[in-house]
Design a protein that fits this description.
about 180 residues, mainly alpha
Length: about 180
């Protein structure tokens, strides 16, 4: 049986792999445009996100309701939200890598900090920030456990860590004239 726009959903529900090829041929340009808008035209990121979109279509085809939406719009929405999710993950990863690596690289270029110098820098943080820093970075306590201990949300812990890193970076750069 030939796959068309009218029966592609049925083929996906029957787990016919040729339906994915049809989607790529028929809607590939649309999916590409939507994804590339969110992943900043990084080819590897685009390919990974496209794979995630196709997998989401494959795994969630039972959620498609033709009375609520047209198939083309449904897959476009999946592509949009997967692209946004992927962009968020990439931003979080880049921020973590940049903030921690910038401090580490700068510290490595200068004399290695002694334990007393690290303690001195940590003294610049508030008591709660210092405790969270020590637990997270030195003791290796997961952020969700720290959040439970403080009866707070995990996002609060990440905010404290982020603000603390910024303070430390600013202080360290000020001391070293960077």
């Amino acid at each position: 049986m030939n796959i068309t726009e009218n029966n592609v959903v049925q083929h996906l529900q029957n787990k016919n792999e040729k339906a994915i090829s049809f989607i790529i041929d028929q809607y590939g340009g649309l999916l590409t445009a939507i994804i590339k808008r969110h992943v900043n035209f990084q080819h590897e990121d685009y390919e990974e996100c496209l794979d995630d979109v196709l997998l989401a279509i494959w795994n969630n085809i039972h959620d498609f309701n033709p009375e609520k939406n047209v198939f083309k719009q449904w897959i476009a929405a999946i592509a949009k939200y997967k692209g946004i999710d992927y962009q968020r993950k990439q931003i979080i990863l880049r921020n973590k890598q940049l903030s921690v690596s910038e401090i580490d690289d700068s510290m490595l270029r200068a004399d290695r900090p002694t334990v007393s110098k690290v303690d001195e820098l940590l003294e610049e943080l508030s008591a709660s920030e210092r405790e969270i820093f020590v637990k997270y970075y030195l003791a290796g306590t997961p952020s969700n456990e720290i959040a439970k201990e403080y009866n707070a949300k995990e996002s609060w812990v990440h905010n404290k860590l982020s603000r603390g890193r910024k303070k430390l970076k600013k202080m360290w750069m000020k001391e070293h004239g960077v």
